[in-house]
Amino acid sequence: MDVATVNNCVDEIVRAKLQEEREEENEIEKRKASVIILGLTESQGQTADERIQKDNEQIEELFHKLDLDTVSVDKTVRLGKRPETSDAKPRPVKVSLASEEQTTEVLIKAKNYLRMESLFIRT
After folding, report:
1. Which end of the chain is more exposed for a tag (fewer CB within 10 A), N or C?
2. 27 in the same domain as 66
3. Percent of the chain's residues with pLDDT above 70
């Protein structure tokens, strides 16, 4: 094997490792801009779109109660498999927000209020 071939292999390995590290950093940044809501009532809608709409409405109402109308929700996702029975414990909801600052604002305002409502918000 000549020196040029070895250098090309090393360059490829270094590029791949750098790309992997960038992707990991991006994932960490995304996580910083999201919260998990526990205890949010699960919709019994027939279609996924109906259930997503109901979750979004509940989150909007919750944020309004917490005086968080300026918070921008990018995406909401129920975590885990949908329960078979309607009396099952509701799945957590991951809420992706526009920024890490909004995540901090949500956590600060939700701290005391939600315990009375049997809801919990965490990162």
Report:
1. N
2. no
3. 95
* 28 and 39, same domain (yes or no): no
Q: Is the pLDDT of residue 122 over 90?
A: no
Q: What letter does residue 66 receive in the DSSP assignment?
A: T
What is the separation of C-alpha 50 from the centre of its chain, rounded to a whole number of angstroms? Answer: 20
- Tell which residue, 78, 8, 18, has the closest CA to residue 43: 78
Residues 111 and 90 in one domain: yes
* pLDDT for the residue 93: 94
Q: Report the C-alpha gap between 95 and 101 in whole angstroms.
A: 14
HSE-CB of 97 using CA atoms within 13 angstroms = 24
Q: What is the domain extent for residue 101?
A: 33-122
